[in-house]
Amino acid sequence: MYPIVRKEILSASVKLFDLKAPLVAAKAKAGQFFILRSDEKGERIPLTIADFDREQGTITAIFQEIGAGTRLLGQLEAGDAVLDVVGPLGVPSEIERFDGPVVVVGGGVGIAPIYPIARALKEAGNRVVSIIGARNKELLFWEEKMAAVSDELIVCTDDGSYGRKGFVTDALKDFYEANKDLQRVWAIGPMPMMRAIANTTRPMGVHTIVSMNPLMMDGTGMCGACRVLVGGETKFACVDGPEFDGHLVDFDLALKRLTIYRDEEKRALAALEHHHEGGRCGCH
Amino acid sequence: MSLKEKIRQEMPCQDPQVRRANFDEVALGYTEEQAVKEAARCIQCKKPKCREGCPVEVLIPDFIKAVAERDFAGAAVKLKEKNALPAICGRVCPQESQCEEKCILGIKSEPVAIGRLERFVADWEMAQGASATEAAPAKGAKVAVIGAGPAGLTCAAELAKLGYAVTVFEALHTAGGVLMYGIPEFRLPKAIVDKEIANLRQLGVELQFNVVIGPSMTVEELMNEQGYAAVFLGTGAGLPNFMGIPGENLCGVFSANEFLTRTNLMKGFRFPEYGTPVKLGRKVAVLGAGNVAMDAARTAVRLGAEEVTIVYRRSDKEMPARAEEIEHAREEGVQFKLLTNPVEIIGDENGWVKAMKCLRYELGEPDASGRRKPVAIPGSEFVMDMDTVIVAIGTGPNPLATKSTAGLELNRRGNIVADEEGRTSIPGVFAGGDIVTGAATVILAMGAGKKAAQAIDAYITAKAAEAAN
Lengths: 284, 469
Ligand SMILES: Cc1cc2nc3c(=O)[nH]c(=O)nc-3n(C[C@H](O)[C@H](O)[C@H](O)COP(=O)(O)OP(=O)(O)OC[C@H]3O[C@@H](n4cnc5c(N)ncnc54)[C@H](O)[C@@H]3O)c2cc1C
Ligand SMILES: Cc1cc2nc3c(=O)[nH]c(=O)nc-3n(C[C@H](O)[C@H](O)[C@H](O)COP(=O)(O)OP(=O)(O)OC[C@H]3O[C@@H](n4cnc5c(N)ncnc54)[C@H](O)[C@@H]3O)c2cc1C
Ligand code: SF4
Ligand code: SF4
Ligand code: FES
Ligand SMILES: [Mg+2]
Known about the structure:
The complex is a heterodimer of chains A (284) and B (469).
Chain A: E1 2-11, E2 14-20, H1 22-27, E3 33-37, E4 45-48, E5 51-53, E6 58-64, H2 68-74, E7 81-82, E8 84-89, E9 102-107, H3 111-123, E10 128-134, H4 143-148, E11 152-157, E12 164-165, H5 168-178, E13 184-188, H6 191-201, E14 207-211, E15 227-230, E16 233-236, H7 237-240, E17 243-245, H8 251-257, H9 262-274
Parallel strand pairs in A: 9-10, 9-13, 10-11, 11-12, 13-14
Antiparallel strand pairs in A: 1-2, 1-7, 2-6, 3-4, 3-8, 5-6, 14-17, 15-16
Helix pairs in contact in A: 5-6
Chain B: H1 16-19, H2 32-40, H3 49-53, H4 60-68, H5 72-82, H6 86-92, H7 99-102, H8 105-108, H9 114-127, E1 142-146, H10 150-161, E2 165-169, H11 178-181, H12 190-202, E3 206-208, H13 219-224, E4 228-233, E5 239-240, E6 253-255, H14 256-263, E7 283-287, H15 291-302, E8 307-311, H16 323-331, E9 335-337, E10 340-347, E11 353-366, E12 372-376, E13 382-385, E14 388-391, E15 395-396, H17 399-403, E16 429-431, H18 434-437, H19 442-468
Parallel strand pairs in B: 1-2, 1-4, 2-3, 4-16, 6-14, 7-8, 7-14, 8-9
Antiparallel strand pairs in B: 5-15, 10-11, 11-12, 11-13
Helix pairs in contact in B: 2-4, 2-9, 4-5, 4-9, 5-9, 6-9, 10-19, 14-15
The complex binds flavin-adenine dinucleotide (2 copies), iron/sulfur cluster (SF4) (2 copies), FE2/S2 (inorganic) cluster and magnesium ion.
GO biological process, one term (chain A): pyrimidine nucleotide biosynthetic process
Keywords (chain A): 2Fe-2S, FAD, Flavoprotein, Iron, Iron-sulfur, Metal-binding
Protein name (chain A): Sulfide/dihydroorotate dehydrogenase-like FAD/NAD-binding protein
């Protein structure tokens, strides 16, 4: 069992857990993820390692409740435990020192996974410019944490309820206009956002890394559910990624593949809602 | 002698029409009367050919003799002298190409049903309750076993019996490897695997799940920092191959590993009570004709697919699956489209599979494997309507553990190079099972695990003697 040592509610649908998982905490690096299973009947849910504390042996996960799996997870409280945690998985981000500014872009819950990358880039001596965005103010989190590891922080909301009104792509374009020596971009968020960032940087010729979040199960290269097409080649995101060159990723295919189990996901959510708020009773 | 039956005893099975809709075991096992009758068919050869066909040289005539004499307990003792997991092997060994192929009775009539007798004895013994195995006095040395498949589990059990403190590190959340995530319940009930794992725990073996050797911990750390005197790598061949044809990333194309793992390990057949969904259309093609393909096809039948077709580029003689599984698949209504191979998977506007373009084949000259090579017939292209494609054309070695171990020699396919006893290029590091041989069989993996345990014992003993001098 892996205890939840701290829970924080970041917004109505976004929660944070600090999980005791010493083995994962000991090895975790920016860009990696882990997989958890809340209980015997639960799915294996991949989540990014948003932070880690090697001394305490804890890792931090931030997740959005979107379907049955994450909703059930969100019902757990500090002091509860999840049944399985495995990681760190995936290839760590390549962190090096660049001769010019680098930009990290985090959209929605993508702010969580972009944080350790920004920190690692900063620690490597880079000039780090962070752009974080969400639909509205309520959905923003970790602004201060991001500011602490950035030379400059730009905050955007789609509806203008906080920071700059507009999309992260607009903020990135403006930054590039003023800083043509932009070296590299990391973008993490919903796939349409990552695609939009990749499309924005393509004409600039700025190398852009995105973190793909396809369907995953084992996370060790055993099932192939996480296939993504990168530069015409099939890759397994869990072991070859999750980071890939955003200019080479086939986003259309990736977006379609996310919908494979949509009918079943709806059924699972309906079954969950049909039950009392306590969660699964297994009466089916 | 006149009492002897010419024909082997039939295996009682669930009716095909009934079992098409459930995940319960298909073959029900011999009754005592059947077992005794079948055992009486064995003529107790002085030079038993059957043993030559068995990779672990089970004392076949000896255990069968005991069955014929109704000494089932004695039969179990004989059987387990060479085979630690008879309940599993009796069910999944390809007997027709191993022990039974060599049985002398097979020349004139039917071979003795060695596998079925093996299963009978193992099940009989389990029904009597667990027999305590006595472990040797503690040796004071620790050994790490990576991977809890048949190779790793057998190696761990042997080492524990020799008195070593053994820890098994497994990437998944449960033990068993392919026995748990690949082979379905209707062929190998998971309760049997669980019993074997409980036995292992009784021997004092520690199981640590959710540890991926490589990213979570390295072999070097296990040996240099955590004090393991030796490491056994039994990480299997779990990396699914795809064909590299257009359309194979469409929605509705799954690897057999994904499909079977969702169903078996994650219990997707009980979705939504269990959270992991399984997706299946009405018309399902399974590519390949090995055990994995048969398991996928028969699982698809049970999940309610209307039409399930095995698509294979050679003929029925070359199909690598166990004969019994092919027969069972046919009885359950699985179709076989042989001498056929897909060249493209065609999608609809939403990115879902809708058809498969195939070529017909004929058999040409024998190839390196001795099987006649399939040759495409020019202009034979045709299209099959399909909404699900399950790819079961083999698996390769998973590189997570091997690539993180500096100095470990691999062959060009990525398999670990190891000698007969499991020794690798690194002293103290041993390997066996599918990670060495490529995808093979349960019994070969077990045999490799057992041999390696003996080699590990010899290695540690010699090192200790050296240190004492
Ligand atoms: C490497 C990686 C890192 C991730 N990191 C985070 C993170 O830090 N925070 C966060 O909120 N989310 C993260 N995700 C996405 C998260 O795993 C999914 O949102 C979650 O699994 C949905 O489960 P569900 O049962 O609640 O939703 P469902 O109702 O089952 O599905 C809703 C949608 O979620 C996606 N999804 C469903 N199952 C999976 C699965 N097994 N793997 C991936 N996506 C799935 C699909 O797009 C699906 O349509 C990450 C995914 C990957 C692959
Ligand atoms: C669907 C299917 C049906 C089959 N049917 C038959 C049959 O009827 N008869 C037969 O004889 N054979 C059959 N086989 C083949 C047989 O199952 C295998 O040959 C056998 O399981 C190999 O055993 P193994 O211990 O080498 O590897 P596996 O059983 O593959 O076990 C390897 C284990 O190592 C773990 N692992 C991998 N990498 C790591 C890592 N880095 N760190 C920690 N753990 C790791 C894996 O999760 C897995 O649990 C079948 C195979 C499949 C897939
Ligand atoms: S272990 Fe397999 S090959 Fe050996 S006797 Fe038993 S069934 Fe036959
Ligand atoms: S070869 Fe056949 S008949 Fe002879 S001992 Fe073996 S099982 Fe019995
Ligand atoms: S999640 Fe199974 S191979 Fe990547
Ligand atoms: Mg889900």
